[in-house]
C-alpha cells in the first residue's frame, strides 16, 4: 500500500466546503527533476544540431579565424580588403560603441562571415567527394590511385569526429538512371533465367515499354527528384512495406540471436534489465545525435535518416495501408509475461532507471501470480495474422474504453519486451538447438511476439551495441544479478486492464489459426561453418560476400537443378534517405561458373569464375522499375491511361518470385570490443522467413577469420525445398569453391 500511495501524486477531494486539491511534495520534486531533464536534453540537442550544421568545421575553428583576423589587423594588414572598415561605418553611433569596440565588432562580424563561407565551401566539397562511387567497382584487393587519393582527402575532410547527422546534408541525391540503362540491366539479369523464346518475348516487351510508356513516366520521375530528397523512398516504404496485407510474422519480420558461445547471466530478470538499459542508453545517444554514422571503408558515411525511428515507433494497421506512428519520446516500456501485459516506467526523478531497479521491476512481473484476463493471453495474435482483420478488430474493439487505454500503452511504448517461460539456444552444438531457437525468435507461440522481433520497415538497434554494453560496461555480480542496489520505494509495474467481448476473443482465435498455420510451415536449418572464414577468402583476393553468393548459387543449382531469381539485400544509403535495394546476384557470369563446376576437369573457366563470377554484384538494380510501376497506377495525368505498355511489363517484372532471398548480417557496426581478445563473444547473427512458398531464405554472418553462421529457411509444405538438404549443399559448395584456389589453374586451351 505504501508503494501505491507513492504513485498517487495528485489528490482531489470533494467536501461540503468545496473542492480540495493536494499536491504531494514528492510530486513537486518529480516535476522539477523532469523539467530539468527535459531542458538538458533540449540544450544537448541544440548544441549537437549546431555542431552538425557546421561540420567539418567546429567552434574552435571560428575562434582561430577571429584571432587570425584580429592579429592581422593589429599588424596593420587588412585581410578583408576594406570590408571591416565598411562594416564599421555601418554600425550605429553611440557612447557604448567606442571606436575600439566598433573595430572589435566589425572584425568579429567579418570573421564570422568568412568562417561561414568556408563552412559552405567545405560542405559543398564534401558533397562532391561523396558523389564519387568508383571505389565500389574496383577489383577486391586492388585499389586505383584515384581511389587512394579520394580516400586520403576524405580522411582529411572528416578528421574531426562526426556525429550521427554530420554528413546528412552533404550526401548526394539518388540519381534517376536513364530508362535505357535500367531496361538493359534488367534484361541482363533475367537472361540466364529464360530460354531463348521467353527471352525474345521479354525483350520485345521491354523495347515496347522503353519506346512508348517509359519516356513520359521518366519525365515525372525526374521532376519528382528535383523537389524531393529521394524520389523513391516514400513509394518504397508505402508500396513495398506498408501496403502488404499478408501477415507480418514470418513474411516481413526478422530476428537477431544472442552471443553464440556464452551467456553473461542466467538470471532472467537481471539479463533483461541490462539489455533494456543498454537499449535505452543507445536511444539517448541517438536522440542527441551522438552516435557516429555507419561508414564504409571507414570514410564513406551512410544515410542516418531511418535511425530516428528505431524507438517509439509502431506500425498501425489499416484496411488498405498501414501507417507508422512515431513519437518524439516515450518514458515507459511494454512487457509481456505468461499472458499478462504490463507498463513499466523507465524514468525516476528525470533519470533513467539503473539496471538494478529494472531487475527489481522485472522480478516483480515474474513473481506476479495473477492469471490473464479473458482474451488477454493470445491478444497479440491479432498482429500476427492478416492485416485487414486486425484493422477491423482494432477499430471495433480497441477504439474506446479500457481497451484503448491499454493498447495505447503498448503502441506508445519505447519498445516491447517479452519475458519467455523457456530458454532457447543454450547448446549451439546440439543438432536442432539453433533451429528451435530461430523459430522461437521469429514467431514464438504466435501470440507473444507482437507481430515479430523487428520489422523490415523499421531499422533495428545494432545487436552489437546491446550485447557489448550488457557484458563489458554494465556487467553482473558473482550471483548473476545487476550491479547496484534497487530502490524499493518504486511503484510496481502497472498491470494493463482489458475488457474484450466474446466477439473480440473470436477474432483473436481466427488470427491465431492463420498465424499458427504459417508458423508451423516454417522449416529452419541454422549451422556453423568453421572450416574456414573470411581469412582464407581474402587471401584468395576475393570478396567474402561474393564468395558466399557464388556458393549459394552453386548450392541452389545442386538442390533444384536450375537457377532462379535471386535477391541479395544491399543498401542505397550512400544517398540521402536511401533504403534497402536489390542486387540480382544470379548473373550470366555466376551461372557460367556454376555450370562449369559440373565439369570433372574443372576447366580454366571454373578456376577464373570464382573471381569473374562476382562482377554482377557491384551495383544494385535501380529502383526505377518500381517507381515507374507505382507512378503508372497513381493519379498523374500521364499514368495508366496514357501508358498501356507499362501495364504489361512492370506487373510481370515485379511479380516474379524471389526463390532465393539472401542477406548478410554485419558483424560489428560499432567497434566496442576486440573479437581477437574475446572470441567467445561473437554473435550468431539472425534470419528471416522464406519470401517464396517454394523458395529459400538465407541469412549469414561472417564472424572473425574462421567462422560463418548460416540461417536457412523454407516451407515444409513445398515438396521442392528442404532446409537441411540445402544447408548440406551450402557446406559442400563452400568447400568445392575453396578447393579451386588451392590448385593452379589448368593450362589454357
UniProtKB/TrEMBL annotation:
Membrane topology according to the record: Multi-pass membrane protein
**Primary subcellular site in the record, as a coarse category:** mitochondrion
> For this UniProt entry, which segments traverse the membrane?
none
Give residue ranges for domain Carnitine O-palmitoyltransferase N-terminal. 1-47
**UniProt similarity note:** Belongs to the carnitine/choline acetyltransferase family.
The pathway that the record names for this protein is: Lipid metabolism; fatty acid beta-oxidation
One GO biological process this protein is involved in is:
fatty acid beta-oxidation
EC number(s) per entry? 2.3.1.21
Concerning Pfam families, the annotation shows: Carn_acyltransf, CPT_N
Q: Which domain of life is it from?
A: Eukaryota
Choline/carnitine acyltransferase domain sequence ranges:
174-449, 489-605, 655-732
- Gene behind this chain? Cpt1b_0
A single GO CC term, please?
mitochondrial outer membrane
What is the official name of this protein in its record?
Carnitine O-palmitoyltransferase 1, muscle isoform
Task: List the keywords (alphabetical).
Answer: Acyltransferase, Fatty acid metabolism, Lipid metabolism, Membrane, Mitochondrion, Mitochondrion outer membrane, Transferase, Transmembrane, Transmembrane helix, Transport
Chain residue ranges for the region called Disordered = 597-617
